[in-house]
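User: Sequence in, structure out. Go.
Assistant: Echoing your sequence, followed by the structure tokens.
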Amino acid sequence: MLSVGNFLSEDEDEYLQNDLNPSILKLAATIRILAEGSYQKGAGNDFHVSLSQSSVSKVFRECIEVFIMLCPDWISFPTAEEEKYEIKEHFLNNTGFPGVIGCIDGTHIKIVALKMEERFKYLNRKGFYSLNVTVVCDNKLRIRYISSHHHGSVHDSLVWNTSDLKQHLKENFGNGERNTWILGDAGYPLEKFLFRSADEGSPECRFNKIHSKTRNIVERAIGVLKNRFRCILGARQLHYTPDICGKVTAVCAALHNTCIHFKIEMPIVNTSPYVMSDPNDVEMKDH
């Protein structure tokens, strides 16, 4: 948090300090809301923050807008050949699956009920209002791509089919890139650059065991993300507009990557048989 705070103080000083609240208090209030899922009043009453609820509301939105501008610095899909080779080698050595540069999955982020005429768009198949968020992670649980603005009623395959990531991988394939793909579950279509699990009962279903072992790392990444930033945990719901909720989710993903970069201890999440060869080997490239 202090490293991000220093960055904000240097580059966004005028924006963040346009009133009497120093930037460190603004960051403290924002990080508490993100990390604990606490309400603004609770964050404002914190002994170390001491801001009114109205001030916390303003501060939170300000900080989210600043953080969202930093997201591209911390969330980027691998493009350098050396980095892609490193990721592929790690997956191959740990799971036996070649060519993998990431694993994809969707997760629902709860939001509060909206205007009656908009509710149907956000009501998901599980019966609650949400955003359908798509995440791609790499071998070190870093989030390399996130799409956090789709309605909860939208299917994972539609999110994928309209994504800039699909277009990027399609162009790479058209330019001759081979043996490079991401792994997804049965909710995604089979592509030349996306391997999904095989249908049960088919001759190819034996392939599912190694596929599942490899792909489950994205479930672990999502679990770590939500347990680090409990404002997006299933037991909570975000009390903001869908636009702000999408930005909050993306910001949490970027902060998750900074935690990995600075080797901050991960929450324990028991969701995956995937074992990293070196759990401490989580360095990100310098930014």
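User: And one key feature?
Assistant: The chain has eleven helices and five strands.
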